[in-house]
Amino acid sequence: MTFAPETIQAARRLKIQHLDVHPTSKSYPNDLDPDEVGIVGDTAHAAKGTSYHLGKDQLTADAYSRRTARDKAGLSNAASAEDVGEFRIATPLGTFDLRHYTAWLFAQCRASAPDTLDLREVIGTVDGKTVLRWDAERGRASAPRSGEADSSHLWHTHKSWYRDSENRDASKAKLDERYLREIGLIEGDEDMTPDQDRKLTALYNGIYGGGPSCGEAVDPENVVNAEPDPKTGKRSAVAQAAFDFQNGHFSQLKQIRANQAKILTALGTSDRGGMTPEKLAELGVDVARRLGTLTFVADTDGPTL
To answer: Could you give the CA distance from residue 55 to residue 171 in angstroms, rounded to a whole number?
Structure first.
């Protein structure tokens, strides 16, 4: 019989822990209650016999959820999907809900974020009106399409994973953990290798503290505007990094904020500001891709690494 693998159970527990604000009561509609996050399929799923919510024993021979090479390689009695119900949570960064989570998932999948590569499909709505389905089998950068899933996805979002990822949590709890960090609900930093940590520390110390950095003497007052060496035509590694940061990252941040403002404005109007769900998804992908180019963000007191 179908069972819920620990990797998906861990993702479920994480969301309930942080989004079910009143765990002893079901009287708060903005909470994500335990019975609003499902893994194993119900009788309706079993009757059709095709869903990722079902394991091998309950699937029909031609079920779409067992056809791909990755699904064949990992086919077992484990369910490989999760449904997430409606929630609304306020953090220091704003107010976030299921529609925001769904739009974020679409954008991350289409940008091929490393922690989404096990996801096969995402189904949900970004506007409360149109159900969209993103399918990795059409190409990871492909736009989600309407008309491929029923209206129940107006109030819950479905995620399914390729079955060969049963024992991996990268696209499950780790992905949800990243979302909760990005909306400011939990704290935590992305893991860095010791070498990455050393290089970032050296760059920070050199640019903002002066003295040697990466083997070079650095003047923090002049490093950003340092001219290329007249003999080589190049800036030092530290000066070039600072120059690129000042002249490139700020412009990226400006465009990111502009796109985010467009998305939030559209979602706050009844007609989405005239934007189609596909256009909103495109803006989300652009934000995700631009964020992927940033290594650290500067404020008036220096960078936050």
So the answer is: 19
Please classify residue 271 by burial: count the beta carbons closer than 10 Å to its beta carbon, then call 0-12 exposed, 13-18 middle and 19+ buried: exposed
In the block, residue with structure tokens 């467009």: 262
For residues 170 and 168, what is the distance between their CA atoms, to the nearest angstrom?
6
Residue pair 175/161 in contact by the 8 Å Cβ criterion: no
Q: Which stretches of 171-276 are DSSP H helices?
A: 173-182, 194-209, 237-244, 250-267
For 137, residues 6+ apart whose C-beta sits below 8 A from its C-beta are 68, 120
Amino acid occupying residue 182: E
Mean pLDDT of the chain: 81
- Region 102-122: what's the mean pLDDT? 97
Sign of CA dihedral 296, 298, 303, 304: negative
- Is 0.85 topped by the overall pTM? no
Q: What is the C-alpha separation between 281 and 49, in angstroms, rounded?
A: 31
Strands (E), 239-281: none
The Cα 255–Cα 259 span in angstroms is 6
Residues 263/264/270/271 CA torsion (nearest 10 deg): -20
Residue with tokens 């991350």: 108
Q: Rounded to whole angstroms, how far apart are CA atoms 120 and 216?
A: 47
Which pLDDT value is given to residue 199? 55
The H-or-E segment that residue 299 falls in is strand 297-299
117: tokens are 């590569």
Domain ranges of the chain: 6-182, 194-304
Q: Token pair for residue 51?
A: 């869903």
